Amino acid sequence: CHKTQNINGAKSWTRSTKKILSLLGENARIPLKHIAAQVFLSPPAVSARIERMERGGIITGYRATVAPEKLGYHITAFINVVLPPERQQAFYEFVKQCASVVECYHVAGAYSMLLKVCFPDTQQLDAFVATIQKYGKTQTQIVFSSIIEHREPGV
What we know:
The N terminus is likely disordered. The strands form 2 sheets. The chain has a 4-stranded antiparallel sheet, covered by helices on one side. Strands 1-2 form a two-stranded antiparallel ribbon. A hairpin with a 6-residue loop joins strand 4 and strand 5. The longest helix has 13 residues. It is built from 5 helices and 6 strands. It is an alpha+beta fold.
């Protein structure tokens, strides 16, 4: 999908393809004609590139981004969990049912799991942490502010 060879022989995206991905990442509803004007291609050419990226699994979907605080979720936190292997499956089933768990990763290092959670207040966060402590040791960091909310890698 519009890649060029770099000096090392690895594939890299063209500047216009990266720009298309960047624009879609900022606003998935941006009109094709606006993308086309910014990447100096015709709208049909932009549409074809987007379709190739969708078919190739590079673009995997489109979604609305919501502001948790506008929905009453004023506390965002990251929770590290040391999860013994014998509790892994039960933990996975538990967190999949928790709407306040917005991201969950299996990680390397001192902890085995990293959760991103959102709660209306610290009391509910505290109750949740107490609940997951039956699965393993935890460490919680409450977010004061976000420097980078979300961005796609390499775009």
